[in-house]
Design brief:
- By secondary structure, the protein is of the alpha+beta class.
- It has two domains: 2-24 and 105-182, Ribosome-recycling factor (Topoisomerase I, Chain A, domain 4), CATH 1.10.132.20; 33-100, Gyrase A, domain 2, CATH 3.30.1360.40.
- It has helices spanning 2-24, 74-83, 106-143, 149-182; strands at residues 40-43, 46-49, 54-60, 63-68, 91-92, 97-100.
- It has a four-stranded antiparallel beta sheet with strand order 3-4-6-5, with helices on one face. A two-stranded antiparallel sheet has the order 1-2.
- The N and C termini lie far apart (49 Å).
Length: 184
């Protein structure tokens, strides 16, 4: 029974990690290397993540720099950034790309807030589904006469407590990201 609880808690933790990673790739008006994590480059016919093709660094609060290890990939990287539809326009100096991060408009900020709320709701649903799976496993154990009614209730309460804690963390992460996006 303890393994069912630990498994559910572990899955909930992974759900939070996935949420953090997904939110990191959403622009907040400040330069962040995670903005480019989702970009894939057609590198000699192979779709390759941008971060595997060169160094991505933060030059200042509003500029990123991409320096490909293979200088011949510069044009492919430029094209991939433009086609990623992130609203970024890289500027090439022949050996690397400077990517100015434009300030977000109020309308775009509100769109991003709606997007993060949707992502957060999906994350909460995932946590609740994990709770449901854990409870189903416990009820199956009880049905097989391997678990008493009292123990079933105790472990259901533990899973519910973990669910409540994880949903609170999701809300805290969303509040922080919303504040970061709405900050001018």
């Amino acid at each position: 029974m303890e393994s069912i609880f630990k498994d559910a808690k572990s899955k909930m933790d992974k759900s939070l990690d996935a949420l953090r990673n997904e939110l990191a790739s959403i622009r907040s008006g400040k330069a962040n290397t995670a903005l480019l994590d989702t970009i894939k480059v057609d590198y000699y016919g192979t779709i390759t993540p941008l971060k595997q093709l060169g160094n991505i660094t933060v030059v200042d609060a509003h500029t990123l720099s991409v320096t490909p290890w293979d200088k011949s990939a510069l044009q492919a990287v430029d094209k991939a950034i433009l086609s990623a539809n992130l609203g970024l326009n890289p500027v090439s100096d022949g050996t690397n790309l400077k990517i100015p991060i434009p300030p977000l408009t109020e309308e775009r900020r509100k769109d991003f807030v709606k997007l993060i709320k949707k992502i957060g709701e999906d994350s909460k649903i995932a946590v609740r589904n994990i709770r449901r799976e854990g409870n189903e496993h416990l009820k199956k154990k009880q049905k097989d006469a391997k678990l008493s009614e009292d123990l079933l209730k105790e472990f259901e309460d533990k899973i519910q407590k973990a669910t409540t804690e994880h949903i609170k963390v999701v809300d805290d992460i969303l509040k922080h990201k919303e504040k970061e996006i709405m900050e001018v």
